Give the backbone structure.
Amino acid sequence: MTDQALHALADAAGLIVEWEDADGNPQTVSDANLRTILTALGHPCATPADCKAAAEALAQAHAANFVTADLGTPVRLPGVHGKVRMRLESGETIEHDLGPDGLLPAIDVAGYHGIEHHHGSLVVAVAPQRCAPMPAGEGGRRPWGASVQIYALRGEHPTAFGDFGALAEFGWAAAERGMDALAISPVHALFTADPGRYSPYSPSSREYLNPLFIDPALIGIEHDCGGPGTGDLIDWQQAWPCRMQALRRFHDDFFADPDRDESHFNAFAEIGGERLRQHAVFEALQGFFFRTQGAGGWQAWPADYRDPHGEAVAKFAKANADEIRFHIFLQWLADASLGGAHGIARARGMAVGLVADLAVGLDPGGSHAWSRRGELLTGLGIGAPPDAFQAAGQNWGLTSFSPEGLRRTGFAPFIRMLRAAMRHAGAIRIDHALGLRRLWLVPEGASPMDGAYLKMPEQDLLRLIALESQRAGVAVIGEDLGVVPPGFRDAIAARGIYGMRVLPFERNEDGEFRPNADWGAGAVAMTSTHDLVPIAGWWRERDLDWREKLTGADMADARSARAEERAGLWGAFVDAGIVTGKAPAGDDPEPALDAALAFTASAPCDLALFPAEDLFGIDEAPNLPGTIDEHPNWRRRLPGTGEALLSDPANVRRIERINQARAK
C-alpha cells in the first residue's frame, strides 16, 4: 500500500518516484528513501498531516516573483490580474490590463523587465528562442580547436605547472596553425590553502577563479620554485604553496609601493561588492582553520564562524583585513590573466577563442555553501544511479542549486554563474547538462542506490541560458552523455545548445560505430574527453591495462572484445573514405589515431574539438574516474611547449589534415 500523502508531497517537491534505469527497467524509489530525501530538502513528512502541510507550504512558496518567458509569446503571471505597469530594461514603460487568467501580451524585447501590480512586483525574463550560434572560421570554414588541461601546458619560461600565461602562449601558436577554439577544464576557485584539492571539478565557488593560474609574467616570475619544469607529473604539495608564496610577495610589494596605481584594483573590488568580499573572507578563514586545525571545510570550523553574518566572522575580518585584501587581489589578477589569454586568442584570429567549462556542482564545504547555503542543496550529494559502468552508482561528493533556492532568489545565483563563465570566453561547455532536467540526489551517508531524481526547473534554466548567451555573444555546449532522458537532446537543440558527439560513444544499438555523416551539424565532434583514454591509448588498450592493474581482474575477454572494436572502428574509417586496407595491429596506434582525427574532423558538426592528448599522440588520460591516488589524476604535463609540439612533423601532418577536412 502506497502512502498517497507522501507521494503527493514528493511530486510537489519535484522528486521522481518512478523512473527507468540505464537498461530501460522500471524502478521505484522506496517510501523510506523518499522520507529521507524530503526531510533533507526541508519538507517534514513523518505523518500524512505533515506531508499535506508541507505540500501546501510548497504551493504558497511557488507564488512567483520571477517568471521566464519566450520572446514573442504571451506569458501567464500567476496570481496577477488587473492593471499592471511593465518597465523594460531600456526604461520604457508599458501599461496593460490583465484578465482573470493573468495573461500578459507577448513581449518583443529580450531582457529582464519589471512588472508592478496591485499586490507587489515581479521580474519577467524574456529569452530569445536560441543561444548565440557558433561563429564560423575564416572564409566560412567550420571551426575546430584543441582541448587542453591548463596545468599540463608548458610555456617559454619553465614553471612547476601550466597557467594562464602558458595558455596564452599555446593559444597564440594554435591560432597560427588554423585553430579557432581552445577548450579548457574549469578554472573555478578551489581552496587556496589546501594543495590536496586540485580537481577542477570540485570547486569552492563557480563565480570566482583559481588564482594558482595567474600568469607568472604578470607578477614578474620567470622561474618559480618548481625548478626547471621538466617533470612529467606535478607535485602539487610542493608547487602549490610555492606559487602562493610568490603571489603573496607580489601583493605585499604592490601595496608597499608608494607610487602604486590602485585604481583598477579598487574598481574591480567595488564591482565585486559584498559577494567578492565574502569569498575573500571565506578564503582567509579556511586558510586559518586548515593550518591550525586541518579543517576541510566550513562545517569543521568552530560553530561561531559558520555564520557568515555572525559577530565572530566580523571580528575576524576586521583583524585580518590585509589577508582579505590579498584574496581580493588574487581574484583581480586571475581575472586579468584569463581575460588576457582569451584576448590573445581572439586577436590572433581565433573565431571562438576560449571554451570555458562550467562544473556541474560545488564542494559542500566551500565558499558558496558557506556564504549562501540557502541557494544550495543541503545534506544531499549529487551523482548518478547504478548503470553498466558503475553498478553501485556514483556519489560525486558535490552539491548544487536547490530548485526552491533558485525560485526564492529569482535565479540570481544561476545567472551570476553563467555570467562568470561567459566573461572571458567565446563558448562555454556545461558539464553534465542532463542536470538541467534532473539531478540524482544521494542522502548524506547513504549509498547512491538509495537516491532519487529531483526535477530541475528546466524551461526556466534553458531560457536563462539562451538570454545570457545572446547578451554575451557566447555559444553554449551541453555535455549530453550518459543516460540521456527521452527528448532531452531535442530540447537543448531547440534552444541552440550544441550537444557532444564523442567518437567512442557514437554507436548504434548493435554497438557498431555510426557513420560520421550522421553526427549532425548542431553538435561538437570530439575524439575523446578528459575522462576517457586517448585514442592511441584505447587502440593499445592502456585503459584495460589500468583496470587490470587496479582491480586484478582478468582482462582476456575485454581484450578480445577490444580487438573486435578496433576492427569495427577501422571499418567505419574505410566506409567514410578516410583509409583503405586492413586495420593496424594493436601495438601500432599511429595510423588509427590519424584516421580518427580525420574521421572526426570530417563530421558535419559546427565545431570539432580534439584533446591535446589526441593531437599529440599521447596514450594516457588526464583523469581516471573512480580513482583518487591510484592514478595520477590532474597531474600529467605535456611533453613540450605548445610551439614545440605544434611544430613536430607528425603533429603538423595531423593538423594539416584536420584543416583540410574542416574547410570542406
